[in-house]
Specification:
Elements lengths: L16 H40 L6 H15 L4 H22 L6 H5 L2 H24 L4 H26 L3 H21 L3 H5 L3 H11 L3 H8 L4 H16 L1 H15 L12 H4 L2 H14 L5 H24 L3 H32 L4
Helix pairs in contact: 1-2, 1-3, 1-15, 2-15, 3-14, 3-15, 5-6, 5-16, 6-7, 6-11, 6-12, 6-16, 7-10, 7-16, 9-10, 9-11, 9-16, 10-11
C-alpha cells in the first residue's frame, strides 16, 4: 500500500513484492498448526517404539504404524478443523515425497551385484510373481484398484514403506493407504513371531531360513527381529535379500508412473505428449539420482546418518498425517476383504519363496 492507501502494483500489473511476501508468509503460517500436530503424534509414536524396544528387545510394531494408529485415534476422538487442514495435508503429501526421495541415498547396487546372478534373478522374479498374484487376489475379492495395487506392492516389496511410496504415484487417499497398511502391519508382526516355526516344520538350514525371511518379512527391522535370534548368518542373508526387494521399489514406481493414465488410478484425464517430469514425479527422479550417487560413492559418509534419520522422521510424520485424515468407519467397511487379501497374498508369497529356495538348491 502507498501513503494514500492504494495497492502497490508493479509495471507488469502484478502486486508488489511486499504484498507477495505477506501472502507467502501467511500461507507458511497456515501450515504450522497441522505440521506441529503431526510432529507431536510422530514424537509419541517414536517414544512408544523406544519403550517397546526396551521392554521386548525388538520393535515388533514400528513407530510408522504406531503413528498411523495414534492419528486415527485422535481423528476419531476429535475432528481437526480448518486451522489444522493445511499442515496435515502438507505433511501427508509433500513431506512423504521428500522422504521417498531421501530413501534413495540408503541404497547401493554393489552388495546386490556381489550376491550372485542366480539369487538376484530369483528375487526379482519372486517380486514380480508376488505382485501379479497379490493384485489378482485383491481384485478377485472385489477390492478397489488403488487398494489392490497398494496391497500388492506392500506384500511383495517392503510393506508399509512400499505402500507409502506408491500411494502418491497412483493418487491414493488416506483411507486407501490406511486400509492397506493396517492389516499388513498386523500380519507383519505375526510373520515375525511365526516364521521361526518353519525351521523345524520344513527342516530349513540357517541359510535357507535367512533367504525365506528376506523374501517374506515386510520391513527391514522385522527381518532382523525374525533372524537375529536364529543366527548371524540368517540375519546377514535375510538383510541382503530384503535390500534387493527394497531396490525393486524404484522400477515398480517408475512403471506405475508410466502406466497410471492407462490404469485410471490418477483420477485425472489423460494428457497427450506429457514430458518426463509429468510421467515421473520429481521425488522419484530424486530417489534414482541419490541411489546412483550412493552406488558411485558420491554420497559423503557424514551425510548418510543425518539423511537416514531425516527420512525416518519425515515418514513417521506423514503417516501420522494420514491417520489424522481417516474415518474409522472406512476400515470397518473394507476390513474383512482386506484381511483376506493380505493373508492370501502372504501365503502365496511364502509358497513362491520356498519354491525359489528349492529351485536354486540353496542349502
Amino acid at each position: 500500500m502507498d501513503n494514500e492507501g492504494k495497492s502497490v502494483v508493479e509495471p507488469g500489473g502484478g502486486p508488489g513484492w511486499p504484498v507477495r511476501f505477506a501472502s507467502a508468509f501467511a500461507r507458511l503460517i497456515a501450515f504450522v498448526p497441522g505440521v506441529a500436530l503431526c510432529c507431536m503424534i510422530a514424537g509419541a509414536a517414536v517414544m512408544l517404539q523406544n519403550f517397546e524396544e526396551r521392554a521386548l528387545g525388538h520393535p515388533y510394531v514400528e513407530a510408522l504404524v504406531i503413528a498411523i494408529l495414534l492419528g486415527i485415534v485422535v481423528r476419531n476422538l476429535w475432528r481437526p478443523g480448518k486451522l489444522w487442514e493445511y499442515g496435515i495435508s502438507f505433511s501427508a503429501k509433500a513431506l512423504l515425497e521428500v522422504a521417498v526421495m531421501l530413501l534413495g541415498a540408503s541404497i547401493s547396487f554393489a552388495a546386490i551385484i556381489e550376491s550372485g546372478l542366480g539369487l538376484l534373478t530369483g528375487i526379482v522374479l519372486t517380486v514380480i510373481a508376488a505382485l501379479a498374484s497379490s493384485y489378482a487376489i485383491c481384485r478377485a475379492l472385489g477390492l478397489p484398484q488403488r487398494v489392490s495395487i497398494l496391497i500388492a506392492c506392500g506384500n511383495s516389496i517392503c510393506g508399509n514403506s512400499a505402500i507409502a511410496a506408491v500411494a502418491p504415484i497412483i493418487g491414493a487417499d488416506g483411507d486407501d493407504v490406511v486400509s492397506s497398511i493396517a492389516f499388513t502391519a498386523i500380519l507383519g508382526v505375526i510373520v515375525v513371531l511365526g516364521l521361526p516355526l518353519f525351521i523345524p516344520l520344513l527342516q530349513l538350514t540357517e541359510t535357507q531360513y535367512g533367504v525365506l525371511a528376506g523374501l517374506t518379512v515386510y520391513a527391514v527391522p522385522q527381518v532382523l527381529a525374525a533372524t537375529v535370534p536364529i543366527s548371524a548368518l540368517s540375519a546377514q542373508l535375510g538383510t541382503l535379500v530384503k535390500l534387493v526387494r527394497v531396490l525393486m521399489l524404484g522400477p515398480v514406481i517408475i512403471l506405475l508412473s508410466l502406466l497410471r493414465s492407462k490404469l485410471n488410478v490418477s483420477g485425472a484425464s489423460p494428457q497427450p505428449r506429457l514430458g518426463w517430469r509429468h510421467l515421473i514425479p520429481w521425488f522419484i527422479t530424486g530417489f534414482l539420482v541419490l541411489a546412483a550417487l550412493r552406488s558411485l560413492g558420491l554420497v559423503p559418509n557424514v551425510l548418510r546418518a543425518p539423511m537416514a534419520i531425516t527420512t525416518k522422521w519425515l515418514t513417521i510424520i506423514s503417516m501420522a498425517a494420514l491417520g489424522l485424515g481417516v474415518d474409522v468407519h472406512i476400515l470397518r467397511r473394507v476390513g474383512g476383504r482386506v484381511t483376506a487379501a493380505v493373508v492370501a497374498s502372504l501365503v502365496v508369497l511364502v509358497a513362491i519363496s520356498m519354491a525359489l529356495i528349492w529351485v536354486l538348491r540353496i542349502a
